[in-house]
Amino acid sequence: MTLTEISRAIARFLGFDPPTDQAAAQVILALIDALLIFGFLMLGVLVLIYVFRKIVGFIQARLGPRYTGPRGILQTLADALKLLRKEDIIPRAADRIAFNLAPLMVFLPAYLVYIVIPFGDPETGLVVRDLNVGVLYLLSISSVTVIGIVTAGWASANKWSLLGGMRSGAQLISYEVPMTLVFAVPVLLAGSLRLSDIVRAQGEFFWQWNAFRLDFFPFTLLAFITFLICALAETNQTPFDLPEAESELVAGFHVEYSGFKFAIFFLAEFGNTIAISAIATHLFLGGWKAPFPFLPDSGFWSLGWFFFKVSLLVLLIIWIRGTLLRVRIDQVMELGWKVLLPIGLICVTGVGLLVSIRPSPTEQAKQKVAVVSECPVSLQKDDGPFRWCRTHGRT
Amino acid sequence: MNDQELEQKIKENWGDGIVSLRPSLNGLEVRVTPNIFKEFARWLAADQEMEFNYLRCLSTVDWVQEQEIEVVYHLFSLRHRHHLVLKVRVPRKEPQLPTVSDIWATANWHEREAYDLMGVFFVGHPDLRRLFLPPGFEGHPLRKDYIHDIERFDDEFAEKIRRGEIQ
Amino acid sequence: MMDREKLVGSVGVGEQTIRTETMEVSMGPQHPSTHGVLRVVLKVDGEWIVEADPDLGYLHRSFEKLGELRTYPQGIFLTDRWDYVSAMNNNWVYCLAVEKLLGLQVPEKAEWIRVLISEMQRIASHLVFMGTYGLDVGALTPFFYCFREREKILDLFEEICGARLTYNFYRIGGVSRDVPRGWLDKVEALCDYLIPRLDELDDLLTNNKVFLARTVGIGVIPPEMAISYGLSGPMIRGSGIPYDLRKVAPYSVYDQIEFDVVTHDGGDCWSRTWVRSQEMRQSIRIVRQCIEKLRQMPEPTFDDPYGPSTHVMAKVPPKPKPKPNDVYVAIESPRGELGVYMVSDGSEKPYRMKIRGPAFVNLSVLPAIAPGHKVADLVAIVGNVDIVMGEVDR
User: Fold this and answer.
1) Torsion angle, CA of C207/C208/C213/C217, rounded to 10 degrees?
2) Distance from CA of residue A121 to its chain's centroid?
3) Which of A292, B33, C89, C228 has the most CB atoms less than 10 A away?
4) Is C240 left (phi over 0), alpha (psi -120 to 50) or beta?
5) Cβ-contact B89, B113 below 8 angstroms
């Protein structure tokens, strides 16, 4: 039974008559999807924090969590429960509305990006909405985060959190620019803004994936590295963890938050880490594809490959976090504007030129680029919100 | 220069203000009057052959029987590698001494500490505030006759904080 | 740094300017990177520091007054609490001052043990510095590595005196016990273990690209300023001045030991970090010489594992009463010149005891070098002074 059938059954059970039952089924399906993503996010973050603690513990010659549950796997859960039970303190001088709203504004983008990210082959129905403007959607949603962080910094009425919020605003906006530029590289290569198209445009062998492909060397590799650096900055990971620099700003923008709201910030941070790794996987590492065509990657195998690649990227981020130290705010800005932005420009120009010059392998792409440039955000006929139900039905 | 040469040189240049010159465990010990103290210190730091450019320590001793406070400067020359102990006594009732923080910047905090704990006023000091004890504290605890009445102290302090006199 | 004077107060292009204000921020006393309870009142213009005013006294325990109220042997235990990261050196300087007043001659074996222990303490203290400084600039991992190595040194200390932080090991006239049998071999093994660990630490922290970017050219102290402010230890040697009391005014048996005074001309935070990392290697050199020397001296027998105390203790009356005199004694502690000015009046208690803390004097340079830097740099500068508040506030 597919999710579509389940939702129809629920609609019928709730007593919706034939003229309205389609719409009701849609609403119920959307709710189920939302719950599923939320569950995935929670589970992913719980696992990630445990793995993070264990690996950083290994790097730092200590053991990490050990006592709660077998090998300490329940430690994160215990911490989460502890945070939920804590008193929720709102400073007297704080702007109450903004103060309460800020965690939500940080958390929502981290949650919403998962709508367009395929967790495997979309043919198998492992995506919520495979939008044809997926990349644009990702960019616009993820740039909302900065508003939440600045709001949190300002609303706390604390000088340290204000400094943290300002730092964060400057950093996130700066790194959005090169990130957007390198987003364009896989889009140019695939000729589509849909994430699944971008994945399908990459070859079957791993040296044909965007990050490693030789026909656009070195632009694509440069773009991948730039993307990774920007990803570190966008998720406030070391060496760009200045907004919450423990030793400088105490804890940055969330210094006044406690209990549940603090947990939400924490959740959003780790959720973003997973999301950005997933995006990098799709854009540059061949998404759900196996590194060799003779390895199975159809059906639920694709889910496995996708998570394997995401885990590798997350491990890389954790490794960097355990090794490097924090750079200074002006050095962050310098790197963003003076190094990454030119590199991003070079990548886009190089790939764009090569795409337009080369005849055979990019003939198709060229036409698609033309189409995209004419109407980049228009929804095609067969691509309404109902399409997903149909693709879903195939499972 | 060794101690004898130092003694010779000081005797040659300074007659009246020198109270005593004697060898001590830390090399030559010079005791001067407060009147010539600042000039003498400046000469010690500036003179080519003396060049005491490093102030190692500034201490104060409360000689309660003599009713005097002694300020002790331990000097060192990084170039000539010789030591000197400079002592000057000021009356306990009105302990005033010109600052040397313009000659040796080390003295800045040392003098603030001496003011805080011993109550010596250093005239001309750029920023003579209490260093360790909170503003509004009364008395100078390192003096031998200081008595700390803990209950009275706590009550008065709480009262001052309540009135907003202490931040 | 940059000339920010003109920018403070207004920003903008041409005639259209926006008025800006400086903000007063209180950094500490509960701030993770002030190494205890230092409070720095900052005036910041955005991220730039206009003025930094350290506010001390949160850990003031009035050791100078307490010292006047205790007999000379009783005063030793107070010294452990001044600079609790290198308590052995505090013990030493206090005992040295009393010995000078009494005119005591310390047995030779005790002198060598003192030097050996003090140098090990220097390594332990510098390891704490490297670890916490890494934390200050955002590197978590070196902290754990440094503390792992330090633990091994503390284990050895525990073996000779039973304590890990407040040792109370040095006594007036010597040390409390001889080192146990087989202990020197362990120290030698530790030296062999430490050398590659220090290289690893250099790779991870001192020569790290990001670390270089954070510390080179930050908090520059010119040599003249370093002398004028009376800096000592790695702070003055990082400005290129070879002022090391072990060479300049040798005490104990340092005149018989071969080692180099490490200096660096940079004068910035990185130079001072580098000086400390090299000093650890010099300390290992000294430790090895001490071991060699101690091996030639009478060892404790099997029946008496701590040995006859006459080897390591001079004859001291139970209540020493030095003649009226005064003395200033200073040793080279890991942080610099740790001095004690002691005045005796012929009684069994010191008449006055003044402590010259190296971190206290080194910190006094902060208001002079902090303006013009960023808040993040201030953390790097304060961390680099290597303050221990127990000794700054006393």
Assistant:
1) -20
2) 18
3) C89
4) left
5) no
Chain C CB contacts of A163 below 8 Å: 25, 47, 375
Q: Is the dihedral of CA B37, B43, B46, B48 positive or negative?
A: negative
Give the model's pLDDT for residue A367. Answer: 54
Residues in chain C: 394
For C208, the closest of A61, A322, A325 (CB atoms) is A325
pLDDT of residue B39: 86
| Alpha carbon distance A203, A210 (integer Å) | 9
Q: Identify the chains in contact with A, defined as 3+ C-beta pairs within 8 A.
A: C
CA A375 to chain C, closest CA, distance in angstroms equals 40
Chains A and B touch (3+ CB pairs under 8 A): no
* C327 three-class SS: strand
At position C388, the amino acid (one-letter code) is V
pLDDT of residue C300: 67
Structure tokens at C365: 């340079």
Chain position carrying tokens 């932080």: C165
The region, left, alpha or beta by phi > 0 then psi within -120 to 50, assigned to residue B136 is left
On chain C, the residues whose CB falls within 8 A of the CB of B142 are 64-65
Residues (pLDDT < 50) of chain A are 360, 362, 373-395
Residue A375, pLDDT score: 44
Q: Would you state the pLDDT for residue B165?
A: 67
The Cα C283–Cα C86 span in angstroms is: 14
Q: Please give the Cα distance from C57 to B116 (Å, whole number).
A: 11
Nearest to C127 by CA among C160, C154, C158: C154
A182/C217 Cα distance (integer angstroms):
34
Q: Is the pLDDT of residue C365 over 80?
A: yes
The total number of residues written for chain A in this structure: 395
Q: What percent of chain C has pLDDT over 70?
A: 92
Q: Which of C100, C341, C393 sits opposite B72 (nearest CB)?
A: C341
Q: How far apart are CA C292 and CA C244, in angstroms?
A: 24
Angle at A330 between CA A325 and CA A331, to 5 degrees: 45
* CB within 8 Å: C339 and B57: yes
Question: Amino acid identity of A195?
Answer: L
**pTM of the full structure:** 0.82
Q: Please give the Cα distance from A58 to C141 (Å, whole number).
A: 10
**What pLDDT, on a 0 to 100 scale, did the predictor assign at position A1?**
55
On whether the CB atoms of residues B130 and B137 are closer than 8 A, the answer is yes
Strands B96-98 and B121-123: parallel
Task: Between B27 and C20, name the one with better pLDDT.
Answer: B27
Confidence tier at C3 by pLDDT (50, 70, 90): very low
Name the one residue in this structure whose structure tokens are 């800045």: B108
Check C208 against A324: CB less than 8 A apart.
yes
**Separation CA C236–CA C264 (nearest Å):** 9
Among C383, C375, C193, C355, which residue's Cα sits nearest to residue C273?
C383
Query: Are A247 and C137 contacting, i.e. CB atoms less than 8 angstroms apart?
Result: yes
Enter the tokens of residue A264.
Answer: 């939400």
Lookup: tokens for A325: 């130290």
Question: pLDDT tens-digit profile of C46-101?
Answer: 778 888 888 888 888 888 888 888 888 888 888 888 888 888 899 999 999 999 88
As a 3-state breakdown, chain C gives helix, strand, coil percent values, each rounded to 5, of: 45, 15, 40
pLDDT in the model for residue C115: 92
Residue C103 scores a pLDDT above 50:
yes
Question: Per DSSP, what are the bridge partners of residue B61?
Answer: B70
Task: State how far the Cα of C270 lies from the Cα of A291, in Å rounded to an integer.
Answer: 45
Asked if C209 and C352 count as a contact pair (C-beta separation under 8 A), the reply is no
Tokens found for residue A266? 């924490």
d(CA C214, CA C216): 6
A236 neighbors A247 (Cβ within 8 angstroms): no
**Do C53 and C40 meet the contact criterion of CB atoms below 8 Å apart?**
yes
Question: What pLDDT does residue C127 have?
Answer: 92
